Amino acid sequence: MNPELSTCRSLYSSMIDNLSVVANALDSSQQGTARTYLSAALDKPDNCEGAFSEKQTTLVLSKENTNAKQLTAIALALLNM
């Protein structure tokens, strides 16, 4: 696996961990914690894209990054209502 994909794999793994904390926080009515971890998860797709742009290689996860970022942003917006 190339280094950029390895970086993205690690970032998405961390994002999944963050979203797991969000789910548990929401179950416990801890909206502040959920908001914090959603905000952290929101950065992961951009960081993945950054790994590719640093090496000036083609981003193979563009659609996935866009989807992940949009879904996370929607969840954060709903939480902030």
Q: What is the CATH topology classification name? A: Methane Monooxygenase Hydroxylase, Chain G, domain 1
Q: How many E strands? A: 0
Tell me, what is the CATH class?
Mainly Alpha
Q: Kindly report the average pLDDT value.
A: 90
Number of helices: 3
Beta-strand fraction estimate: under 5%
| Corresponding CATH architecture | Up-down Bundle
Amino-to-carboxy terminus distance: 41 Å
Can you describe what's shown?
It is built from three helices and no strands. The mean pLDDT is 90. It has one domain: Methane Monooxygenase Hydroxylase, Chain G, domain 1 (Up-down Bundle), CATH 1.20.58. Helices cover 84% and strands 0% of the residues. With 81 residues, the protein is mainly α. The N and C termini lie far apart (41 Å).
Write the topology of this structure.
Layout (H helix, E strand, L loop, with lengths): L2 H25 L3 H25 L6 H18 L2
Helix pairs in contact: 1-2, 2-3
Task: Write a compact overview of the structure shown.
It comes from Carex littledalei. The protein has helices at residues 3-27, 31-55, 62-79.
